[in-house]
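Database export, one record per block. Field names are fixed; values are copied verbatim from the stored entry.
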Amino acid sequence: MGTVLDMATETPLPTLPVTISDPNDRETRQRLTSRARRLTKLSLAWHALEAAIAIAAGVIAGSVALVGFGADSVIEAGAGLVVLWLVSGERLSSHRAERTAQQLIAASFLALALYVTIESARDLTAEHHPAVSWAGVALAAVTLIAMPPLAAAKRKVGTALGSAATASESRQTMLCAYLSAALLVGLLANALAGWWWADPVVALLIAALALTEARDAWQGESCACC
C-alpha cells in the first residue's frame, strides 16, 4: 500500500495498490488452453471412430477384449469431454472443478474395470472361443502408432497449464496405446495359434490397468512418464 503526503497538513493519505499483470502470461495461458481444446477435440473424434469399429468387430467376433477396448474408447471420450468442460471458461483456476474432473475420470476407469473383469471371467469359465478379427488387428496396430504422440502432446499442455486432470486424461490416451499393444498380441495369438484364452486374458490386463488408473486419478496423482 503506497502513501501520498498532503501538502497542507503533512498527513499521509492512503492510495490504492498498483497491480501489474503480465499480458504475455495471459496470452501464453490462452494459447495453451486453445491447444488443449484442439487436442481434446481430435481425441474425441478418434475415440468415437475407434469405439464404433472395436465394438462392432468385437460383437461380430465374440471378442471380450475388442468390446472392452471399444468401451475404453467410449470412456476416454467421456474423459475428453470432462477436460473440455474443465478448460472452458475460468474453471482451470478452480480447485473444486479440477478435483471434480479428476474424480469423474477415476469413476469412468472403475466402471470399465468392473465391466471387463466380469465379462472376461465369464468367457474363461465358459471357454468361449472368439472368432478371428482382422479388422480388430488393423485397428489395434493403427492405434498403437497414433496414440503415443497424442498423449505426449496432451501431457505437455497439461503440465504447462498446471492441470492434474488434463495430465490424467493424457494418461488415458497413453493407456490406450498400451492396451492396443496387448490387444494386438491377443488377437494375433488367437488368429495364428488358436489360443482362444489369450482374448479374455488380455481383457483382464485391460481391467487391471484401468483399475490402477482409477486409483491414481482419484488420488490426484499425475505421471511424468506418459
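Remark 1: Strands lie at 3-5, 12-14.
Remark 2: Residues 1-9, 13-23, 222-226 have pLDDT under 50 and may be disordered.
End of record.
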